[in-house]
Design goal:
This protein is an alpha/beta fold and 110 residues long. The chain contains five helices and five strands; from the N terminus they run αββαβαβαβα. It has a five-stranded mixed beta sheet, with helices on both faces. Strand 3, helix 3 and strand 4 form a beta-alpha-beta unit. Helix 3 packs parallel to helix 4. The radius of gyration is 12 Å and the shape is globular. It starts with a helix and ends with a helix.
């Protein structure tokens, strides 16, 4: 499943759309960025409420291809600019991390 397909299936808005629409290899849910650095896998999505530039930096370190921001958190312009520079998709959803994680798990296991 590509990032755009996942966004459509989740009903998430793509707010940073300049990225390679690659297949998602999995996902990791965490709001603790050091935990993401230690445990997230390459080619996956990060599901979080941490909407700031440091989230993009961490995503870059572990080769995350998409960041899904939950709870309709406001997205700062410097975060979106950093994501654009790194080619990382940023998605926004009104749902919480638990719901998005469950939905994405189901979609990726098909």
């Amino acid at each position: 499943m590509t990032i755009r397909e996942a966004a459509a299936s989740l009903g998430a808005e793509i707010v940073q759309a300049e990225f390679d629409d690659t297949g998602l290899e999995g996902a990791y849910t965490s709001d603790l960025l050091s935990d993401v650095m230690a445990n997230a896998k390459d080619g996956g999505a990060l599901i979080t409420i941490q909407a700031h530039k440091n989230t993009v930096a961490v995503a870059t370190l572990v080769n995350i291809t998409a960041i899904i921001i939950c709870n309709n958190r406001p997205l700062p312009e410097d975060m979106l600019a950093a994501a654009k520079d790194e080619g990382i998709a940023v998605l926004l959803t009104k749902e919480n991390q638990y719901t998005v994680s469950g939905k994405l798990y189901g979609l990726l296991k098909k």
